Amino acid sequence: MSLELFESVVTDEPSGRRSAASMIDPFGRAISYLRVSVTDRCDFRCTYCMSENMTFLPRKDLLTLEELDRLCTVFIAKGVRRLRLTGGEPLVRKNIMHFIKGISRHIASGDLDELTLTTNGSQLPRMAAELAANGVRRINISLDTLNADKFRKITRWGNLDRVMAGIEAARNAGLKIKINTVALKNFNDAEIPELMRWAHGLGMDMTVIETMPMGEIDADRTDQYLPLSQLRATLMEQFSLRDIPYKTGGPARYVEVGETGGRLGFITPMTHNFCESCNRVRLTCTGTLYMCLGQNDAADLREPLRASESNARVSQAIDDAISRKPKGHDFIIDRDNNRPAVARHMSVTGG
Ligand code: SAM
Ligand code: SF4
Prior knowledge:
Helix content is 31%, strand content 18%. By secondary structure, the chain is an alpha/beta fold. It has a single domain (3-179, 278-349), classed as Aldolase class I (TIM Barrel). A twelve-stranded mixed beta sheet has the order 9-10-11-8-7-6-5-4-3-12-13-14. A two-stranded antiparallel sheet has the order 1-2. A hairpin with an 8-residue loop joins β9 and β10. α2 (65-77) runs parallel beside α3 and α4 packs parallel to α6. The longest helix is centred in the first third of the chain and has 14 residues, at 96-109. Bound molecules: S-adenosylmethionine and iron/sulfur cluster. Iron/sulfur cluster binds next to loops.
């Protein structure tokens, strides 16, 4: 990883604008992107993400949606230009649409460039149109297979028909969709060309992700882990992949696929560290701020939020947290390192 990259301030906001109140970390990275896990609960139990019997965060510790709105608003005042709702499954949190509608006022005012979400798609048949009506333009939908039996196997509780209906509803509502696929050895590696042809055929971008060692799961991660360098080499036997500078503000590196005309992104936290351009922090539904997906250091924002009606204390707590943002993560999966790098599941911070 190049140190030079850390020395320049990164501003990859779509607007290219930097707010006067920018948060800059010790490595010169401007923090302009907040991911909010609005719940750690989910209607699926994907095998790489959760164990079947999960202990979720106690309900009494949850921030109310009003408190979450207040916190997001403080972050926006401090320079956040993009907000992604995630989870758990963000669309299963009660009254989430009311929250989304409230946050969209920052889009209308121009203080926020984008409000988006990552979803498993199960609630989209009933919610896609309302999302579009409330300022959401772009969503990520997670889908690891097009085979109904395999879908049930990997999600444990999911139903492929319902997710397909959700994708259709989102397309009909005019939402721009990116399909997120976790690449899993001996599960969907052979199917990825078909998934990609399908996504590109419907005008959707697709991103493949390496499994990360987060939280205890029932499966063995060394059995699941597929380095994307290997997947890329296999794809290059069938497709012409051209590196392109396309950026969505996230960590994916994109190629254009000659045969489909579509874009394929690679998120490679394991084989290629992407930390040098990290512009984000992650807030959990209990008000804990994680400065890095792969590290344990965190800041409690709930206490300062609740301690005062003024935002001064919470704003100071955010500044203190950003001043401790680490340089990067160090995930390893192999036979000698078959333990989670961090104890929390991906569903706590939302990826
Ligand atoms: N429930 C929503 C969904 O599945 O899109 C949002 C939350 S989910 C935690 C966000 C993304 O993280 C999904 O694309 C999921 O596939 C991915 N994910 C979950 N656990 C992972 C892990 N251990 N390694 C890599 N990606 C993971
Ligand atoms: Fe739920 Fe998303 Fe985790 Fe699957 S990946 S269990 S849908 S939070």
